[in-house]
Specification:
The chain is α/β, with parallel strands linked by helices. Helices cover 52% and strands 18% of the residues. 22% of the residues are buried.
């Protein structure tokens, strides 16, 4: 199953043309959106604190926290540097650079 953390949608939803493609993808079988609940949000805050990062990295931290709490997980990203920093102290989360 492919899980998409809800905060990631903030970064990818930009216009109706792009949103239509995203909606199509999210409607496919085996793909689900994971809401940022209290446990995920608190874990993300702890990751930011652990690595001395500002809230400018909040979406990345929410992505990593979601993956960690659903581990074993893999994160496919075009931003492997920041994601690898946030996953450096975690087990069960693999980072795949696109």
């Amino acid at each position: 199953m492919v899980r998409v953390p809800a905060p990631v949608l903030v970064e990818v939803c930009r216009d109706s043309r792009r949103d239509a493609a995203i909606a199509h993808l999210l409607g496919a079988r085996g793909i689900g959106v994971v809401p940022a609940d209290r446990a995920i949000s608190q874990a993300a805050g702890h990751l930011l604190a652990r690595h001395g990062l500002s809230s400018a990295h909040a979406v990345d931290a929410l992505l990593v926290a979601t993956a960690f709490l659903l581990a074993p997980s893999a994160i496919a990203t075009g931003d492997p540097k920041d994601i690898r920093l946030l996953t450096s102290s975690l087990r069960g989360v693999q980072v795949i650079a696109l």
